[in-house]
Every structure is written in C-alpha cells, then in structure tokens.
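Support request from a user on the community tier.

User writes: "When I paste my structure tokens into the form, the page sometimes reloads and wipes my input. The last time it worked, I copied everything first. Here is what I submitted, just in case something in the input itself triggers the reload:"
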C-alpha cells in the first residue's frame, strides 16, 4: 500500500489553492513531531520514569502528573524557535507563554492540553494531546501578545487536532478541509495517513457520560439519559450502549470512528462543566463538525461561544447530529 506521510499530505494540502499557508504547515509538522516524542515517553511508562504525580498542582488545581509537565515542556521547546508562533497557551500554565526575544515571532497562536486524561497514565489506559491553532490579531505584530488575543471563538480556528497514545499512536487533524488520521510508524518514525475525510457514522446508539454525576445534572440531561436507559421500551424505542473512558481524546476518537454522543454537561456543582473551552472543547468541536457531527454546550454550538477567560470551563455535548438536536430540544423544553 502506498504510504502517504504527514509531510506529503500537508504539502499536497498546501498546493490546494488557499489551504494551509507554509507557516501553518510548519506549525502542524512541529506539533506532530512533538507528539511523536510524547508518544515515546508515554509508551516507556515506568521505564522512562514518566509515571506518578508531582507535589505540584496546575492552574486548574489538579495534581500534576510527571507526564503532564514532560509533555508541556516538549511542546514549548519544539515550538519556540520556529518563527511560526506569536505565543502559546497550555492547560498546565496559568499565563500565556511568549516567544523568547531571541527567536522570530510568527502569526499563529497555539493552545494545547499536553496530556488529556492524565489520571489514566498510571493505569495503562489511553491518554492524548489536544491542540488548537488561531491566527494572532494583526495588531499583535507590533506589540507584545496578551491573553485577550487568544480569546477568539472556536469558529476562528485554522487547525485543530489530537494525538491519542493507545494501542496505536494516532494523530487526527483538520485544517478545515475534512478530518484526517495518521498512524505512527515507530520503525520509520513517520506519521502515515491511515484514514481520510473521516465522516462520523450516524444513528449509533451509544452514549458516553460519567453516571456518578447524575445527582448534579440538569432536568434536560437527566431526561435524555433516562430515555437512553429506557431503551426499546422507552420513547426512543432503541436500546443504547454506554462507554466512559475518563479520557476525552479516547471517547471522541471512538465517536469519530463509530458514532454516538459524548456528554460532560454543565451541572449544578459549578454551572459551567469540567472541560476547558479553549484547548479541549473548541478543538474537538472543530473536528466533530468537520466530520459531519455537532458540538454544543447543550444548547449553543461550542464554536460560537465568545470566550471570556483563557481557562474557562464549559459544558460539552458532542457527536451524532440527530442526538445532539434531541438533547438540545430536551434542554430548551425544560424552560
Ligand atoms: P471525570 C480528563 O481529566 C478529562 O479532562 C477528560 O479527558 C475526560 O473526559 C474527563 O476529564 C473525565 O472526567 O470526572 O469522569 O474523571
């Protein structure tokens, strides 16, 4: 089988008129290379001294895993010198990361969750890296980048993707021309195209939610899940299956490949959900919409939400378009 590497794929995308400027192609290649290095660390596990927690907490108030910090460093180091970025932001860093003065500044902003699902690392389950790319405001070329430059709706993303470090290491990417999957060929060290123009299967009766939060849900969420659990004897008239991996990247990848829905809704505890808008919800929403699905906060498309804070959290409901519409209907009919 003729293998198309990521580099060849990106050059061919660049040749398509108006898609993938050279600087953006370079950015995607560098992020992909950093994800290769992260994959190597993840797969070495205890042999690489990457397991376990640190004494520190991140800006989210979560205990940092060793690999959170290692992956964050790999992404910062890989992207500082290339001249394609104006600044970076990470789940693991409270403030934005400016490009050191000794390096040229570029026109893009990179946001990432270096290791998503890190609680799974020590027990051998899939984790991933999520990234989102925005265009820096033109005005930032003549001044220092500030946090407000990052606060753009997800609709303005020029690229997004994730790497999933599981049975295989996969890179799933969109630059606005569809969703493409690459599998890491460890012997050669290349990301090889393994699925093109991914279209999410529709009609799959499978939901992903953390059921232990049930007492905190809104009436709309409760009603939807009750209908799923009622199965063929209930109003939907079909039995449903359930999955919850504790790793958004793994749940979203499953949904991209075989359909279903993922819910981490805003609930009564904080009213805003657990997942972060800028570097988890928005990049996943871009991929899901590009694959023919829908992604909302339960009602509003995620990529239409105007961000107010870099680390803001939001409810996330994504996947099968018809199911997302059903969930929206139940949320709005609750008054
Ligand atoms: P819970 C991982 O910590 C994460 O941010 C997502 O990857 C995942 O979907 C969710 O949180 C899991 O949350 O409350 O089920 O542990």
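"...and here is what came back when it finally went through:"
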């Amino acid at each position: 089988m003729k293998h198309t590497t990521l580099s060849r794929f990106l050059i061919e995308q660049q040749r398509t008129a108006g898609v993938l400027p050279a600087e953006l192609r370079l950015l995607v290649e560098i992020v992909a290379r950093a994800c290769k290095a992260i994959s190597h660390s993840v797969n070495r596990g205890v042999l690489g001294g990457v397991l376990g927690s640190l004494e520190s907490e991140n800006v989210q108030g979560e205990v940092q895993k060793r690999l959170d910090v290692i992956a964050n460093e790999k992404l910062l180091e890989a992207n500082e010198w290339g001249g394609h970025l104006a600044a970076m932001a990470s789940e693991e860093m409270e403030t934005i990361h400016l490009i050191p003065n000794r390096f040229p500044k570029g026109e893009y902003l990179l946001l990432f969750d270096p290791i998503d699902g890190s609680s799974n690392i020590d027990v051998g389950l899939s984790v991933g890296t999520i990234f989102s790319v925005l265009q820096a405001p033109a005005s930032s070329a003549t001044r220092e980048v500030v946090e407000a430059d990052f606060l753009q709706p997800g609709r303005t993303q020029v690229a997004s993707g994730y790497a999933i470090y599981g049975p295989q290491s996969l890179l799933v990417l969109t630059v606005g021309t569809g969703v493409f999957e690459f599998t890491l060929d460890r012997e050669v060290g290349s990301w090889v195209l393994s699925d093109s123009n991914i279209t999410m299967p529709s009609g799959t009766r499978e939901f992903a939610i953390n059921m232990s939060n049930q007492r905190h849900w809104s009436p709309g969420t409760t009603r939807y899940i009750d209908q799923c659990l009622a199965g063929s004897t209930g109003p939907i008239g079909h039995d449903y299956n359930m999955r919850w991996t504790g790793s958004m990247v793994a749940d979203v990848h499953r949904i991209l490949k075989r359909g279903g829905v993922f819910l981490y809704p805003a609930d009564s505890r904080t009213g805003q959900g657990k997942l972060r808008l800028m570097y988890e919800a928005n990049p996943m929403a871009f991929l899901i919409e590009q694959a023919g699905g829908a992604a909302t906060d339960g009602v509003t498309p995620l990529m239409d939400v105007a961000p107010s804070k870099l680390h803001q959290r939001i409810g996330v409901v994504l996947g099968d378009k018809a199911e997302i519409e059903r969930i929206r209907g139940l949320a709005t009919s609750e008054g």
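Agent notes: The reload is a front-end session timeout and is unrelated to the input. Residues 6-195 form a domain with the Fructose-1,6-Bisphosphatase; Chain A, domain 1 fold (CATH 3.30.540.10). The chain has two domains: 6-195, 206-332. Escalated to web team.
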